Amino acid sequence: MSGSTCDAIVIGGGISGLAAAAYLARSRKRVVLLEAADTLGGLCRNAPLGDGIQIPFAAHALYALDQRVVKDLRLTRHGLKFAARDMPLAVLRSDGKHLVLSSNARDTARSIALQSQSDAEAWPRFRGELFALARAMRSLWWDDQALRLGLGQQTALERLSRTGASAWLDTWFESDVLKAALLFDAAAQALSPNEPGSALSLVWRAAQEICGLQGAVAFPLGGPGTLVDALALAARQAGADLRTRAKVARLIVANDGISGVELDNETISAPLVFSTLPATETFALAPAAAAGFAHARDLAADRTRTGEAKVTFALSELPTPGGVALSLGSRFIFAERPETLAYAYRASALGHFPDEIAFEMILPSAIDPSLAPAGRHIVSALVRPIPLAPDGGWPQRKAELAARVAGVLDRHFPSLSQKIVAAEILTPDELSPSRRADVTRMLSHWGERTQTPIAGLMLCGASAEPVAAVSGRAARLAVAKALERKR
Amino acid sequence: MKTPAPFVRATPFHARAAEANRGNAWSARNGVTLATVYSNADDEALTARLRVAMADISWRWRLALEGDGVTALLSRLFTRDVSKLSPGQSLKALWLTDGGAVRGAGLVARYGRDKFLVASSEPDPDWFQFAASAFATTARDISAEEGGLAVIGPYAKVVLERAGIEAALEPLQFRKLFWRGLDVTLSRWGEHGGYEIWCKPDDGILVWDRIARAGAAFGILSAGLAAVDLLDLEAGIARPDRDYQAARDGFAKAPTPASLGLERLIDADHAEFNGRSAWLANRETEPKTLVGIEIDMDRAAPHTPLLLGERKVGHTLNSHYSPALRRTIALAQVERSAAEPGTSLTLTLSPNRETPDFRTVAARVVALPFLPAPDSIAP
Quick check: bond before A48 cis, omega within 30? Predict the structure, then answer.
């Protein structure tokens, strides 16, 4: 077994891993990134789906990409461009009373007023309060990583950390569609909208920004894979060694500190190891209970039961919405009522397929035609909540999930299912399920989440984020923390 | 792991203990009924120190661990390296939380390559159960599967030999024996010298009778819990539940080993035990340490403040009149600056029937243990 030495190792070549490698290399560290798969990118890579079609493999639209990562790593110069910067949100209903929320306040107000006049009046006030709280929360991931709260905001956040998202929205709005749309975004972290504290996840979501726009959703030109390429370029130019097909077999831990990693036929020594794997997988690579028995017990006690699934269709024709004129560059949400999400969560937590599924759909090829050859189109749908392990097992029920999604889409995009030429289904177990969001950690110091009881081992992937999202933020903060400590 | 039965269990020696228990004074410990005092606790403790006494120790929590990963598991759990033990050897050590706090103290005995026994005065099944599952090891509570009778005192060895047991064992060793028709394990695990005989529940009465008969010529007495607790106090041993609350939160940082005088059970060279780095990080900042104090008056209630001049420097733990020392002694936690033997402290005793007023009395710090183990004055 051959051996080598470097300053830092990054496990996982997704967005977080690449960002960590780039940051480390920029600080003149000799860094080796190890990705088990054949290609970099992880959940953000583009994957081929026959006929020259490139589909976003897992993540399809970005809403949380850290602005400082973009700036520090000069991602724009390295090729990151956006095809859509602030995608409108369209909630489609079977009764045709659709709701469209866009950056145009007047259009939004008019659309909400079609549902309810009082909601249209409450909307600007709600956005004002939500965004103010969200901006306060953002200081958690800027410089001193501490909450900077204005008058009354402490009480407000504390109240929300005990409030269910649906109960909070009930105090603002009467329209089911509007509430369902907002709750869908808050369901990102396997929390029931009825669960105490889930209101905080609405604030968290509103705290995210992309392209400098708070609460926006954007689609990169060329798909999320462009972000991967830009980060990889930034990391390589800074001098990082990015290796694929390099699967870490073991973490080498001695005296409660990490000293390197073991691959199948090689040992790499380094005093710093950044893992983007979920916490459970990271510690499974270390000797049993290496981080302590209580820590291991906490990890084992994780009761995450629900996750997300991704359904992608290749179509032979551009789908057209029936009845109304809607921009195909929108983000479509299919959730009729707030209860849809609560019931889907409840069923999923018990391992049952929900009777009514909720999902978000975008048409990447309508936003960026370069993703598919002429005459071909892509539908990308993110279904949640969905059981991590449904009755009967995922291999048997994959097709059923695709059929259900196609069935709902058919209602709004007539005869869409007849245009499907290929399908790709990614189940929650393949999407590497994220740990259930812990609302109590949502307001905690970022540095703590990246640290582990094993000295030198840092978490910088989704496990270090309160809510799993493509942001690169955990990587930025973990590297800053590690280098500060070393100094 | 079997959960303890919800009702109070009797020990294999209960029938004989009931006959000997003149005051009908009983206590429950770990769910087992035990005699608090047979006739007089001071007599019983003095007898253990000067002649020979036997004590029912079936209440101890005992866990049998088996499996491929058991050595790795116990090396990681305990503050000493159990992998260095040969079969038939044992050691005493602590197990710490992730935060370096004392979660328990006990004994690890190696029965075979992949077979160990863990014994402790306070059960901690949750911790061991989870730890065992992480190391492909099975942990089974065997507390009720054997009875234990301790024979303590300078004449313990002679009494055992009179009873027909070859008692040549070093401290912390143990051996299985075939003793005139009975399968027993003889061990030297106790804190007070002496020996322990572990037998099947059905053999309890026979074992008790054989020891009682062999010890009659030496004036053997059975010692109740109060007497054994007194021996513990004289030996300077802080016990969970009685002197301190062991940590039950897995991340707790207190009580630290240093604050309980238990650092002697930690091998700093043992590199891999749970809580090691937290223990190392916290040991310098721990302000308190365990000392013994002699009080010039009655026993003090636990947690009575101890003053050095006007300043509070610590508090008492368990205290008792020691018939062997003929004075009141107490364990105490004091600041390191006040831990030097000979330091004079004062404390205020609560009113009692004889003196219905608060009294300020003097106390002195003394080195632990107050008294050596009884067997070291063996004839």
Answer: no
